[in-house]
């Protein structure tokens, strides 16, 4: 064999060995990657995917005595679209989302911008705004229920000092949903503020310095630099805020009694699902209601993903 042939074989062996090493390294990374995501995958399957499949199957059944169910096909869905309470709950949920989501995103962004400045005691302010996320929702609802009390609540008392007769915040059908939306906005600002604050801190300071040199005012910098560059984070906040708004339940459950005349104008789809599934023990119909909610959330999320290309700057 010639010398050149042996050199070529040696080089070929080296290439094969390098490929084998890369292949083993890649396989090792894949192995550890799957090991790391396995607990999350199991949790997702057990707590989300499997219950969702079971709920979908249950929506075609009617719960009977002793835990037995009978197959009724599409009867639950036919009843669903003929039920005035369901249609009213869909309208209530949409109204709540329309009130809460824009207000939450706008106020959270304003607070995040203000708390992104170098001011004294900035950590204390950030903590104060985030406190509603730490407190128990039931405790928050009870405090707000006292504040909104039309007879001895603090809000109406303060209004009476300046000569204004406060409304019946929780018992007036026209005010009940607004009162719940106020609590929803107040309790969501802190969490969204943290997310937007993280997005703001990723924006290079050079852009603002260059804009200041060119004579751009702080307001113009906000609309031409801050909003476009924080739009990916804002998109995430909008999507999660919409999903959270459509899943509102605990505030309604704690603040509005079943005998409250405003219940019909404030109950959401999740509240109606709870009512039929756990109070009236009609789990099949309750499952159909929650599947309707899932369909609405999926449709709105798809629309948001399609529209994000027009206003999100990556």
UniProtKB/TrEMBL annotation:
Record's keyword terms, sorted: Cell membrane, Membrane, Transmembrane, Transmembrane helix, Transport
Protein name: sn-glycerol-3-phosphate transport system permease protein UgpA
Localization (cell): Cell membrane
Keyword Protein biosynthesis found: no
Transmembrane segments: 32-53, 96-115, 127-147, 177-200, 221-249, 285-305
Native source species: Clostridium puniceum
Membrane topology value: Multi-pass membrane protein
GO terms for cellular component: plasma membrane
Pfam families, per the entry: BPD_transp_1
Family: Belongs to the binding-protein-dependent transport system permease family.
A Gene Ontology BP annotation from the UniProt entry: transmembrane transport
Source organism, top-level taxon: Bacteria
Annotated InterPro entries: ABC_transporter_permease, MetI-like, MetI-like_sf
Ranges for domain ABC transmembrane type-1: 90-304
């Amino acid at each position: 064999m010639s010398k050149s042939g042996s050199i070529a074989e040696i080089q070929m062996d080296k290439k094969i060995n390098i490929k084998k090493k890369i292949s083993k390294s890649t396989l090792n990374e894949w192995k550890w990657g799957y090991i790391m995501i396995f607990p999350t995958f199991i949790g997702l399957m057990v707590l989300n995917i499997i219950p969702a499949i079971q709920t979908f199957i249950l929506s075609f059944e009617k719960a009977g005595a002793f835990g037995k169910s009978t197959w009724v096909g599409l009867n639950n869905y036919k009843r669903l679209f003929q039920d005035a309470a369901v249609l009213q709950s869909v309208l209530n949920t949409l109204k709540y989302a329309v009130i809460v989501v824009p207000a939450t995103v706008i106020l959270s962004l304003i607070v995040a911008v203000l708390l992104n400045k170098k001011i004294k005691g900035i950590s204390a302010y950030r903590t104060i705004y985030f406190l509603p996320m730490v407190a128990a929702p039931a405790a928050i609802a009870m405090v707000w229920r006292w504040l909104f009390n039309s007879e001895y609540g603090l809000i109406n008392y303060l209004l009476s000092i300046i000569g204004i007769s406060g409304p019946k915040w929780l018992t007036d059908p026209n005010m009940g949903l607004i009162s719940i939306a106020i609590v929803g906005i107040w309790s969501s600002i802190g969490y969204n503020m943290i997310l937007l604050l993280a997005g703001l801190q990723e924006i290079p300071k050079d852009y603002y310095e260059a804009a200041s040199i060119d004579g751009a005012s702080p307001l113009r910098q906000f609309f031409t630099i801050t909003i476009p560059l924080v739009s990916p984070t804002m998109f995430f906040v909008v999507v999660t805020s919409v999903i959270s708004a459509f899943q509102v339940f605990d505030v309604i459950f704690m603040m509005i009694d079943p005998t409250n005349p405003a219940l019909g104008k404030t109950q959401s789809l999740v509240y109606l699902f709870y009512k039929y599934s756990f109070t009236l023990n009609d789990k099949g119909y309750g499952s159909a209601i929650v599947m309707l909610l899932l369909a609405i959330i999926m449709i709105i999320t798809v629309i948001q993903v399609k529209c994000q290309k027009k206003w999100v700057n990556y």
